[in-house]
């Protein structure tokens, strides 16, 4: 079991992609802290995981990732106290809300930045810790900008830029923490249904048929494949600053960048 004794924290872990990642980690014998704002979904998730894997290997912590104090004290510190260490952080919680677009920036970008910095406090050699790995969840929307979700698209661009910069900082600073980013295309989760809702899409809801045509054109992935990609980012020690894309046509693959030249 590759991850026996390792401890992971997954934000937005109660359903969808995060839940699939939690299950994959537990199948590899890691202990997992599921951090999610949704109490009912988190309670149900914990009961199901306890029934499948036995009690003691996972915890549910109700926490809104946009509450910086709660993220630090209730999520990260409690996880480290409960399981004695932290090795893997998956900053996955995300929303699609063009109406309350400032909240979208808060959840999808600001909280990913905070989650990365907190992960470093618990894992980086800078802080006297043993090292570890961080995955930040972006989207293919960062490559194929979505006219139906301009602010969502902006946050996902931001997650890639921040993650790549931090991955280089980790090398320069000898943090001992690998930091990578994952960009799935459309995935079959409750989030995808938010395209129907004016409360989520705001004025862009009138483009929902166009959005659905794009989904039909590119297809919809299963969360288990995204979890497979995450497990590769976690276990492949050569990966740092990698931008993993997952699409129906190409499966799991990596974005390549031109080398920088003067
Ligand atoms: N479903 C899709 O087609 C794609 C999703 N993504 C990204 O994957 C990530 C996960 O998305 P899905 O699983 O599809 O969504 P989902 O809506 O199924 O699950 C998201 C989870 O995050 C939690 N969450 C939302 N706001 C939160 C907050 N403020 N604090 C704590 N937890 C919060 C929700 O309660 C939920 O359990 C997101 O970052 C999303 O942008 C990326 C590409 C495609
Ligand atoms: C309703 C909210 C759902 C949000 C999910 C998400 O992240 C949205 C992505 C939006 C746009 C991405 C557009 C197209 C990308 C899909 C596939 C590209 C695959 C290209 C290929 O090589 O096949």
TrEMBL record:
Its EC number is 1.1.1.141, 1.1.1.232. PROSITE patterns: ADH_SHORT. This is 15-hydroxyprostaglandin dehydrogenase [NAD(+)]. Residues 6-178 form the Ketoreductase domain. The keyword Lipid metabolism applies. GO terms for cellular component: cytoplasm. Belongs to the short-chain dehydrogenases/reductases (SDR) family. Signal peptide: none annotated. It comes from Oryzias javanicus. CDD domains: ADH_SDR_c_like. Catalyzes the NAD-dependent dehydrogenation (oxidation) of a broad array of hydroxylated polyunsaturated fatty acids (mainly eicosanoids and docosanoids, including prostaglandins, lipoxins and resolvins), yielding their corresponding keto (oxo) metabolites. Decreases the levels of the pro-proliferative prostaglandins such as prostaglandin E2 (whose activity is increased in cancer because of an increase in the expression of cyclooxygenase 2) and generates oxo-fatty acid products that can profoundly influence cell function by abrogating pro-inflammatory cytokine expression.
């Amino acid at each position: 079991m590759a991850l026996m004794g390792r401890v992971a924290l997954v934000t937005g872990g109660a359903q969808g992609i995060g839940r699939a990642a939690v299950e994959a980690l537990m199948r590899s014998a890691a202990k997992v802290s599921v951090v999610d704002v949704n109490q009912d979904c988190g309670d149900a998730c914990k009961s199901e995981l306890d029934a499948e894997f036995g009690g003691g290997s996972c915890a549910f912590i109700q926490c809104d990732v946009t509450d910086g104090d709660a993220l630090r004290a209730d999520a990260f510190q409690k996880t480290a106290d409960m399981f004695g260490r932290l090795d893997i952080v998956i900053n996955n919680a995300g929303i699609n809300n063009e109406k309350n677009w400032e909240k979208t920036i808060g959840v999808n970008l600001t909280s990913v930045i905070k989650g990365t910095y907190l992960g470093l406090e618990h894992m980086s050699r800078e802080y006297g810790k043993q090292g570890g790995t961080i995955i930040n969840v972006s989207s293919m929307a960062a490559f194929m900008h979505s006219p139906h979700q301009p602010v969502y698209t902006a946050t996902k661009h931001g997650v890639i830029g921040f993650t790549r910069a931090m991955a280089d900082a980790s090398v320069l600073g000898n943090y001992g923490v690998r930091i990578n980013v994952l960009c799935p295309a459309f995935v079959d989760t409750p989030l995808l249904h938010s395209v129907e809702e004016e409360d989520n899409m705001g004025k862009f809801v009138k483009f929902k048929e166009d959005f659905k045509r794009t989904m039909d054109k590119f297809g919809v992935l299963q969360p288990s494949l995204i979890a497979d990609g995450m497990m590769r980012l976690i276990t492949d020690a050569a990966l740092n600053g990698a931008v993993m894309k997952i699409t129906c046509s190409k499966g799991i693959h990596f974005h390549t960048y031109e080398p920088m030249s003067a």
